[in-house]
From TrEMBL:
Belongs to the major facilitator superfamily. Allantoate permease family. Residues 489-515 are annotated as: Disordered. This is Pantothenate transporter. It comes from the Eukaryota. GO terms for molecular function: transmembrane transporter activity. InterPro entries: MFS, MFS_trans_sf. GO terms for cellular component: membrane. It is found in: Membrane. The chain crosses the membrane at residues 57-78, 104-125, 157-180, 192-209, 229-248, 297-316, 336-355, 360-381, 387-407, 419-436, 456-477. Keywords: Membrane, Transmembrane, Transmembrane helix, Transport. It is a multi-pass membrane protein. It comes from Aspergillus kawachii (White koji mold).
Length: 515
């Protein structure tokens, strides 16, 4: 028999009345939304059907969590990518380096980045540490960033790159974990997409900063321009960390920051309860056992590893432009269109996934990337089409925030498992990036960049497996949700109860319609 909405412990009616879990009626909304309605929904971060105190709470959280997270992510990518900019701006000549040293710098960084993912995420799940961990780590990697401007030999630089990777390790997945602890449903998707914009912005701005430092600061204070880049990045980093100490709230069970009242914390915990976001429990060996027995970790690790591998060649449009004989300014500027598309896709695609079924948005983005990969496999195509293919790779900008928001939604009933899964996704994803590109995406040789006769077919396969893994997760989760919609343990009476009493089970209404 049809399930009455009232039976779900009031979940659906409370959700619709108070605005939590907007995903639950997404299909209904998309049927009613016209172009103007859709436009308004994209920018509707504080719906009018939310109570006033809840809208105020969301605004406070956005000013604290989202602003700090965006600034933190931005400077993370500045400090992560500055070594490549410094290398081509005088570091190579000053230390008499060759191409292998740049690879070694990256190996040092990503080795630490991989090793410290899971420990960092497990620490982020601890209420006492969650509020202070990211700002403290940012202070430490900011100091290491400054220190890179004073190195006198390459061994010192190797050690500092390792430390930067270690301190930056929990930032990406840790921020997703924090977002998933305060927000749910459409709130989560919209904010994750906005936050992820800073990925592309940090990468773009690092190049502009190095260009400005090389042009205007070379020789100032007796230092070359590449050293000034590390100083400038450090100047950005430390103040952001100080802001984090003041405003970053951690998770709802962390020590209360000054700008949140006791009523705010009570409301935040109530929102989490109604959205079925479980509060942190004890970290025991059982966490690892139950995580490894469930399908979540295996499917999501596969998805993220495929995402990392598929995205690797898409950032090397500059090598193709150089091979085609474009000027140096064109080689540097034309690829920024991809970053611009990536920014739009990250924000708009993830926001639309809060309105339409997320699998639909994921399929559209994946189709763009599969088409572009197919063009690269064929290779001998009109130049205009090849430009289109390179730029369409920017559509992948929404795949990461949608994936992590989906993890936050599906595993929200187990904070420790959620932290372990996110850390493992990063660990395995980037562990493959350390060695797989050497086999599939070599720089030189007949199969080298940018032709990559082996690499582009592999990228096509990775894009397809990423999409297939996401769809599989969606279908499995939907099946599990349907299995939970069993209300009766005995024969039904006329009133639909057993012995006159309804048997109540909690059903996650926030994602079943969207997925």
């Amino acid at each position: 028999m049809p399930l009455p909405e009232e039976v779900f412990t009031g979940e659906l009616s409370d959700t619709r009345r108070q605005g939590l879990g907007n995903m639950s009626d997404s299909d209904l909304k998309t049927r009613k939304l016209g172009a103007w309605g859709l436009f308004k929904e994209v920018f509707n971060w504080y719906p009018s059907n939310y109570p006033t105190n809840e809208r105020k709470l969301l605004f406070k959280l956005d000013l604290s969590i989202l602003v700090f997270a965006c600034l933190c992510f931005f400077v993370k990518y500045l400090d992560q990518t500055n070594i490549s900019n410094a290398y081509v701006s005088g570091l190579k000549e000053d230390f008499s380096l060759n191409g292998n040293q740049l690879n070694y710098f990256n190996v040092c960084y990503y080795t630490a980045y991989v090793v410290f993912q899971v420990p960092g995420l497990l620490l982020m799940s601890r209420p006492t540490l969650a509020r202070w961990l990211l700002p403290s780590l940012e202070i430490l990697w900011g100091i290491c960033t400054f220190a890179q401007s004073r190195v006198t030999n390459v061994s010192q630089l190797y050690a500092l790159r390792f430390l930067v990777g270690m301190f930056e390790a929990p930032v990406f997945a840790g921020t997703h974990f924090i977002l998933g602890s305060w927000y749910s449903g459409a709130e989560l998707f919209k904010r994750a997409g906005t936050w992820f914009i800073c990925n592309a912005l940090g990468t773009m701005v690092s190049g502009y900063l190095q260009s400005a430092a090389y042009t205007n600061l070379s020789g100032v204070g007796g230092m070359p321009g590449w050293k000034w880049l590390f100083i400038i990045d450090g100047i950005f980093t430390i103040p952001v960390a100080i802001i984090g100490f003041l405003v970053f709230p951690g998770i709802p069970d962390s020590p209360r920051p000054f700008f949140l009242s006791e009523d705010d914390i009570t409301l935040a915990k109530d929102r989490a309860r109604r959205a079925n976001i479980r509060r942190p429990g004890r970290m025991t060996l059982d966490v690892f056992k139950r995580t490894l027995k469930r399908w979540h970790i295996w499917v999501f690790i596969l998805c993220y590893a495929c995402m990392i591998m598929s995205s690797y060649p898409t950032s090397y449009m500059n090598l193709w432009l150089e091979a085609e004989g474009y000027s140096v300014p064109q080689v540097n500027k034309l690829p920024t269109v991809t970053y611009a598309i990536n920014i739009v896709a990250s924000w708009l695609g993830t926001t639309l996934a809060a309105i339409y079924p997320s699998w639909l948005i994921y399929t559209i983005a994946s189709t763009c990337c599969l088409f572009s990969s197919l063009c690269m496999i064929i290779w001998n195509i009109p130049k205009a089409l090849k430009f289109v293919a390179w730029y369409l790779f920017g559509a992948a900008g929404c795949t990461s925030p949608i994936l992590y928001s989906t993890v936050n939604t599906i595993v929200k009933d187990d904070s420790e498992e959620r932290a372990l899964i996110m850390g493992s996704m990063m660990t395995f994803g980037y562990s493959f990036q350390i060695w797989v590109p050497l086999l599939l995406f070599p720089t030189a040789g007949p199969d080298g960049a940018p032709r990559w006769r082996k690499g582009w077919p592999a990228a096509f396969a990775f894009f397809f497996l990423l999409w297939a893994g996401f769809i599989a997760a969606t279908l499995i989760y939907r099946r599990e949700q349907k299995a939970k919609e069993v209300l009766y343990k005995g024969p039904e009476t006329e009133s639909g109860t057993e012995d006159g009493e309804p048997i109540v089970v909690e059903v996650d209404s926030s994602v079943k319609d969207r997925t």
